[in-house]
Amino acid sequence: MSEMLRAPAEVKYADELDYLESVDTGPKPFSWRLSPRMVRLFVLGSERADGLEREIPQKWFGDRSFVERSIVTLASDRGLLLIGDPGTGKSWLAELLSAAICRNSTLVVQGTAGTTEDHIKYSWNVSMVIAKGQSRESMIPSPIMTAMEQGVVGRFEELTRSTSDVQDALISILSEKYVSIPELNDDNIVFAQPGFSIIATANSRDRGVNDLSSALKRRFNFVRIPVVTNKRSEAEIVRFRTEELLRRHRIELDVPPTLLDILLQSFADLRAAAASATSDDEKLESALSTAEQIGVLEDAILHSQFFGDRTLRVETLAGSLMGSLARRNPEDLAILNKYLHGVVEPRAKQNGEGWAGFLDGGRQAIASLS
Amino acid sequence: MTTATAPDDPHRTTGDGSGTAGAGVAAGPFGALREQLTDAAATFAGSADALAGILAGIVDDVDRALGERLEIFPVCHHSPASALAMVRRLRHKQPKVIYLELCEDLQPLLGELRNCRLPVAVQAFASELDGFPAEWGPLSVVAPVTEASAEYQAIAYALETPGVELVLVDRSTDHVFQWSPRDDAGPAGATGPTDDAGPTDGTGPAAVTASTGGAGEQAALHGDAVGVEIGDLRPRFAELEAYLLHHGKVRHWSEWWDQYVERPLAGADHDTYRQVMVLIGSLFRRLRPAGSDRTERDEDRERYMWTRMREHLAASGADPADCLYVCGAFHAASRVAQFGLDSPAPDFAITPRTGTRWRYGLIPSSHSAIEAQFGLAPGSVSIAAATWTKAVSGSGLTPFRLDGQRGGKGRGRRKVAAVAAPTGPMADRLSGFLAAPPPLDGLDEAELRGWCVDIVRLARRNGYLASTADAIAVFETSILLAGLRNRARPTPYDFADAAVTCIEKDVVPGRRDVRRLCEILLGGDRIGQVGYDALPPLARDVLDRLQPLGLDLEKRTIGRALLDLHATPALTGCSDLLWMLRHLLPADAVRPIMGERRLGHRSIQESWDLALGRHQRALIELGYEGVTVEQVLEQRLRRAVRGTDATAAGALAAVEDAIRLLNSPRLVDELGARAVELLATERTVDDAPEVLRRIRRLLAHHRATAPALPAWCEAFVTTGYAHYCTLLPTAFVEEETGVRQVGAMLGFLFSMESLALSLGCDRSQLELAVAQSHPESPAKVALLWAARHQLGLLPLAELRERCAELLANPLVVPAFPRYLSGFVHALEPVPGLAPFVVETMSTAFARLPDPVLLPWLPTLITTLREHGPELVPLLVREAARTFPGTLPELDAWVPPWLAPAPTPTPSAVRVGPVGQVHTLLAAHPAAVEAVAALLGCDGGWSTPQATPAGPSESALVAAHPDTVEAVAALLGGG
């Protein structure tokens, strides 16, 4: 296979999936490639007690019951809607689930303000229609329709970003499980094959942009993914994603554990501050999610790799933290400044390890931003 | 597993006559199992040492416990399986004596359970401590009792069957605290989250105290009592529990227990039940942190219980074969030397109780309170209760029940029918239980379907858009989830997860989320109630005295009582009692909606919200303090003024309460005298504003109601005068003392001055104190000026001049607002200064530069609102008097202080018409001349024009001549 910047989960973990499929003896719903228990094992990793010859690493970090509820929903009649703050790993979970269930996580519709019903159902190859007339050949099926035809999982990212009438096109797909093509005289219904389901994601911060109609809500099971606040699992996630990233960029760089601690601690502090804020102005615009942390670290790593001396320094980290979190000019900068002054400064005086550098880097970054 | 392994007790009784065998000896019914486990240990651990010791030891423990002559019945708390096994065993064996692991001093209370609706908690309470650190007080121990528990079955059987004796053998509540570590802040702290963080001990003072935060009202029913419970069975260290949960693929301990022990044991026979329970007890006993205080306490308790049982058997001569010892499974696997009736070890030396006076009672409990107290998952006790009900109806057993027990269905039966006992040698039931997965119940489709339909209905009622389609989806999802989690039938926990998945969307429409609805559906929280007969005398007295209100006060709802004291004076007693309860109970228990009781004020109509049923615990605990509410209130007030942190202001508040609520002059005098003492010994003036406010109110009250002030009031005023005079110079200088405090001191001195002087104080004290005061901060300087003005040492003109100087000096201008604050505070002691304060403030607004004025304005407003709300009306009234009220007037308005002072001219003196007054004054000129001389008025006597008295005056006087004649007669003027 030619090289990919980012391989989809089913390609990346093809070995693991093959292995799991070969040892899977459990009952499989519909046309699933793995049984529900193996899907769970693929997502959450294996333990000694599972009795597998090969260790399956954990890929998604979070409560076991979220994964179980999601898998069960996909085996039932309803669609799955993962809802949560940005950066909580909704899309990653969706990708892992569809990769494990049907080995295809690429049938994705991205919801935007410009998404139309065509993107969900089908559209036409205009030149072919002119040449040959409307037929199944000249029809371009949407990813969702493809998923129906193949009996696999289709994904709909950021469902609430698309407008309500477009969202409602999903209602008939989810209840009747077919799409009719009135333009054709015969062969004009595409029936969903067994195994078809939809995983949608929605941002809880955007709720209300285009609220879901209750008819559509009824056809989805909602699984709310919370922001990870457990420091241990958060450290695990950051480490996991960073390693992947370093591998992808082929960067030989060490992320010192103290630095990771500083990153996690600073996010924990800022989250606490946001939780106690009374108005939006006292709150950073960022959701301070784990993905944001990974972004900060990635930025710092790339910066040190290409503009620094190829070692990750705490000053660089502070700089990229300030850079990524300061989005609104007076408000966010004021909050970060307050944080540096009120929290980091005393800490730097108390136990200088790392925090003094963090303070310096942060101050420089703020000075250059404001 | 570094913290695990308990070394074998050196005093262990091995090889006694009861068939107990040492490790490695393949004998007895468990020989094969022991061998198998030792082999397994050798295979997996590489050596047969530690692991084999533990595994074989567990089997030994089972062997030993089951071989004991006195039948040991291991139980676990809130386990319907335990309760079922207990019912079966009691019906079968019909023991004559039951030994129960519960604090022995709680015994007399158990009979009162029949007057209550379960769950209730048996409580021991002590507020007067003797032999315990004072800061531990008040001590409180609760032992909750639920219907679905083995101990309730045992209690009900023993109390309802003639000839059966129930003996509580665990250490007394006094020992619970005697054995608590002393070095900690308190018994709760010592036994709470330190070494027993997650898992909690059954009957030790170990249970984590109930957290009140966020847990809701029901969860806080036990207050901060230490919980004791029979048969807590939980891993003793967090790692083991986490390990079991992780591999059991469950989320919390209750779920693990339900799946792996409860359900498999639900229908088990007696032998299997006992063997498995002892096995689990032994496992947790052997895998526990070694050498902790808690381990020692547990072992001491076991020694205590065995000693008590032996004592009882010796004294009563009962046959051990007719006895049953009910204890937690943990204690059944005990390895102390005193274990067993045949143990040669000497009896445990039981220490005498301390002098602490314990009081006992029953308080209402609830499922959520039990869950919160003992760290169980929310809803687990309710689920256990539901399981019990279902198991009872399914098994055809008749559970025991106290006669007259309230609540639930009457299923009790007094006559205990003997069931034929299959007797035989003990057989190994463990191997089978451990080797094969337990036969699980099949899917109970009807039950699950019922749940699904009900949850949808409940959800709809709570605002969710749920429909029949959701019921179907919940059903399907429950089964799928159970399958994914390796269970043949969905547990209530699976069902709850499925319901959340299918019904809960992005928002919770009502007050309750779906998980909470599931809890309600599966039994819901049940709140117990203590019946009237089981209440302490005080609580009964309260209910009796509130009878005239005609409300059912035992109900858990809020009742509205309307008291028209004018129409029904008989209700005055109720009203008095309610005000006292208002003072003593939590704010929500009795809440006045209309009417108030201040000093000297009683409302004619009152209306109250009463929720005594909901706050039964508070009322019952009040009952431990005395026999009547009056007595308790009196004690509390006395305690409030005698305590080490009592203050004069607090004592005055107590005096006020005593007048308001008790109307006992004797107590008022006593508290007042104490207030004087407290004031004289106080070294700070922090409370001065409060003292001033209260004493003013009390003085006004006494002046209005009694011909003379009580002695303590006079003493308070004279003491206060001297006290504040002494402290004034220091208070002016000290930085810690605020302006408000100094203002209040001056307020006391000036407003009480006339009274104090009449009582023999010396004014020079005050003058000296003011002369010695040299404040530095601007606000206090302003206060001092005001004080000197009041004393006549600083005329207004000079004061005005000083202010003008301040404003003129650019170096001082930034500090001017602080001077102004001082003047505002001076309104309290020197109210006559109000026009000047308004004037100064207006000048400041006019002349202060913006950079000084603008930042100060918000501070002024907040300071006024916080510290001097009573001064604001005064200021506003004065301002309204000074400034024009309409716009047109404003154009022509000149501030009074800028207006040229009117020069008095002699011609302005109006000469009134000659009347009898004038004649009178002219006849007696001495007084008038003296006044004129004092005022510096030397205009002399003017000759009046002789005009006849006006028609109106003379008509009036003529019509009512009596007054004039009387005055005339008095003056002898004729």
From TrEMBL, chain A:
<dbReference type="GO" id="GO:0005524">
    <property type="term" value="F:ATP binding"/>
</dbReference>
<dbReference type="GO" id="GO:0016887">
    <property type="term" value="F:ATP hydrolysis activity"/>
</dbReference>
<dbReference type="InterPro" id="IPR027417">
    <property type="entry name" value="P-loop_NTPase"/>
</dbReference>
<feature type="domain" description="ATPase dynein-related AAA">
    <location>
        <begin position="79"/>
        <end position="220"/>
    </location>
</feature>
<dbReference type="Pfam" id="PF07728">
    <property type="entry name" value="AAA_5"/>
</dbReference>
<protein>
    <submittedName>
        <fullName>AAA domain (Dynein-related subfamily)</fullName>
    </submittedName>
</protein>
<dbReference type="InterPro" id="IPR050764">
    <property type="entry name" value="CbbQ/NirQ/NorQ/GpvN"/>
</dbReference>
<dbReference type="InterPro" id="IPR011704">
    <property type="entry name" value="ATPase_dyneun-rel_AAA"/>
</dbReference>
TrEMBL record, chain B:
<feature type="region of interest" description="Disordered">
    <location>
        <begin position="179"/>
        <end position="216"/>
    </location>
</feature>
<dbReference type="Pfam" id="PF18934">
    <property type="entry name" value="DUF5682"/>
</dbReference>
<dbReference type="InterPro" id="IPR043737">
    <property type="entry name" value="DUF5682"/>
</dbReference>
<protein>
    <submittedName>
        <fullName>Uncharacterized protein</fullName>
    </submittedName>
</protein>
<feature type="region of interest" description="Disordered">
    <location>
        <begin position="1"/>
        <end position="22"/>
    </location>
</feature>
